[in-house]
Fold these 3 entries.
Entry 1:
Amino acid sequence: MGEHIISSFGKPTKSASKAQLRDLSITASSSFWYLFDYGDELVHKVTVEEIYEMTSEDKDLPTGINKIGDAPPQYPMQEE
């Protein structure tokens, strides 16, 4: 899974490979920062709109409802 790298954003946390959303003790309307790519430090601010218990019948996954700007290419073509 790779080593746990401490980011310059916010307080240190445990490894993402061992963390779960339930560990964050979040509530509706709370926000947190999500570091997507350690190398490029692509950071996203996530604001929780609603929390509910999923059941085995639920087919819809959580979804983004707003964004600001365009996403950078994750793996841009590199010149040879």
Note: The CA atoms of residues 35 and 43 lie 5 Å apart.
Entry 2:
Amino acid sequence: MRKIDSPRTLPLVILLLSLAFCSAPALAANGTISLAYRGSGGSYIGDTIIFDGIDTVGNVTVLRLTGPDLPAGGVPVYDLTGKEGSGNPIEVNPDGTFRFVWYTHSIHGLENMQTARYFITAYDLADPSRTASASIMFKKPDFFVTPTPNPLETGDYLQLIGTAERGTPDIHIAITEPNGTVLHTYDTGASATGYFNYGFHIDMPPGEYRVAITSATMGTSYTTPLTVIPPQSPANGTTAAMQGATTPVTPVTTGTEAAPPVSGRRSILPLSPLSAVAGLACAAGIAVASCRGRKRS
């Protein structure tokens, strides 16, 4: 039996082990992504919908929406007028799971949604090619209204933009506190197509309120939240929309912004003590040499 020369075989064993360990991380790239929501598969526009999912590809999941009259590449789930192909990012838990609560009444451009099937697609920010989708059948309620803007400050002008499927002439609007106390009431009617738009200035102090609309002829009602926020100071740089929003609506974009142009004025940097002493010594030497030159001349 031939004896193995261990000094020669040892480097080969080390090489094989290193290759095995280096190839292991490639398995992580085969992670999975899934998306599901709680419910029967149909919701009214304005409802709150909860999604559960798994993303083991990366640590940031992005959600976009596609459907009737929306770009084929999708838009952010909170902005129907957003950039095509972008979405709203949500954080993934360390175990790869995520939970997303979709407050559809807060969607920008919600008035453009219609009774139809929409698709929500989840993809990983690190690898957009890995996706998972879920579909929901949305239906406009008999009454539907969008407060614009929302949130807003005391004194701002609020517009209630809505529809009534059967076009009723007796729409009653009530602004209430969460406990049901009625603060203001207004009456309006819808057009032949069911569209109505009613506006007024907000005089309530900061707080949470409700906008309720009813119709005696239709025997139905619809309620949506309204948020009044404190006046924003220009010094803090925070806008009303940013402070009052319940969920982020910033779409994911790519690319970098160009650096601001450099002005033609050069900045003067402070000298260190050592540099200052060296400068004085040089100045003194120049002065002595100049004096000696004058005496010789």
Note: The chain has two domains: 27-139, 143-243.
Entry 3:
Amino acid sequence: MTFKHADSGSAAADELVSRDESAKLRRLRHGRGSARAIAMTGTASSLGRRLVAELAEAQHVARVVVLDTVHPGVTGSKVSFYSLDLTQPAVDARLTEVLEAEEIDTFVHLSALEGPIHATAWAHELERSGTMQVLHACHKRRIAKLITVSSALVYGPHRDNPNFLREDHPLRGLHGAHYVADQMDVEAQVEKWREKHPESFVSVLRMALVLGPKTQNFVRRYLSRTFVPSVLGYDPLVQLVHENDALAALMLAVERDVSGVFNIASEGLLRLSTAIRLAGGLPLPLPFGTLRRVASLLWALQLCEAPGAFVSLLRHLCVLDTARAQRELGFRSRYNAREAIVSLRGAAPLHDAKLLSEAR
């Protein structure tokens, strides 16, 4: 943590004392014996629903307050539901009211979409404006801990990317992808909030592409094709995170009092061609320009899982360094990239075992 130089005396000194006292208060408030009161958004997703269920069973959690437009379907004595739409103006007043009434100390903001959608204006309101209202309510409540999820795509797939991207690498995004731009804006908002609230723990989990039997996103739809498009002359390394590991990382972020950005990914990398075959498909190599134009057209016709800008993911590297998450968050993935893909098909056929052996 960086403080202003206290060369003029009392004002800066008072600020240091105030922040030090706040740090002590948050440690006391989140001692090992205390039970957390957690509010959550984004519980309509598979990951969100599973996190509600896990938290409701955790001994260190007193209650889970769901803030969403749709009930997650998880019930129990610890779970309560408030119907709130983050795209509505001035919803922060209602959010603040709920946070105060429920005495919330931890906010898990999962309203980030799982992938690109055609309703870009609505997505913009949910991601950017919704996050702004959540942060405003957290400020009023003086939340002790804030956790949110982002995507590895904020780094962007670029020709000059290093082999492994650390958390301090510049966020260059993906040109022309509204979904990625929204993710980058959310991260910028959260970072500004963290700087203004050094007394709070703020964790951002940058997830690799999430995959698993219960996850329905653009990655799974892409791999579910019989003939899977790829870029002619390119076979980049693919990094994933199994849905169970994504859930485990979120639970660790709730349990542990840490601040910062953490890259979350499973162990192991695969060539894109191997990933496609493991999923049961066959690579269909096409020239980059042709594939991008076709993808853009199909996206406009709502016949494709992602816009043309995402074709760059099939050409360049975007691989995360997870050392910080291992060191500070205690995150260790239980599933590797191969297992994440094979899990889409249930019990793996014999030819999958051969492919796994060849990929090692």
Note: Residues 120-141 form the longest helix (22 residues).
